[in-house]
Structure formats: C-alpha cells, structure tokens
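Sample pair:
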Amino acid sequence: QLQLVESGGGLVQPGGSLRLSCAASGFTLDYYAIGWFRQAPGKEREGVSCVTPSGGSTVYLDSVKGRFTISRDNSKNTVYLQMNSLKPEDTAVYYCAAVRALRWCQIWSGYDYWGQGTQVTVSS
C-alpha cells in the first residue's frame, strides 16, 4: 500500500526553524517527484516547493525562496523541507505529495498521492 507520512511540524516562534520529513512506504521514491504543499485556514492549498526524482531540479514558491530548502534521500525513501526564518504567515497544515514524473515537479495539480499533513504554527 502506497503511503506518505509527514512529520516534524510543531509550534515555533517567528524567526525559528523546523524540518519537515516525508517518508514513503509501499513504493520507492526513485521515480517520483515530491511536492510540499500547505493550506492555511480559510485559504486554498498552495504548492510550496517540489523536487524531481534525481534531486536535480527544485522549485519554490516566491514567498519562501531563500528561507526553505527541499532535499531528498532516496536511500531512505524520504524527502525533507528545511524551513528557516519562519514567519506567522507560514502557519498552515503542510502536506507532501508524490507523482510519477522524471523531469518535472511543478505542475501542482498533477500530484496523485498525498500524506495526511502536519501542522506548522508560527507564533510568539
């Protein structure tokens, strides 16, 4: 059974850091692009970052560029989102998702498999 599980969310003060993990089971991530999405209360879900299967190409939402870094360790079947300099507007439920695609990752509507999400709250 194909499954994605996010972890690493929590409560952090503005300016702080968190690292989210997305662990896959039931399939290998070697052929899958992975995206991180978020949804804040009352807002639509948006794509935050994504990475191609090789890790050679990454994409970031403009508002997180320079603060967030996506990476993957295919040997551990896990993708990470390092979030630094967090702001209150980063507060949301963060989801990871997967799509079988070798050369792209930024077609946000194309993702097939989703995790349950992890809450990130940035507040003093």
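The first strand starts at residue 3 and ends at 7.
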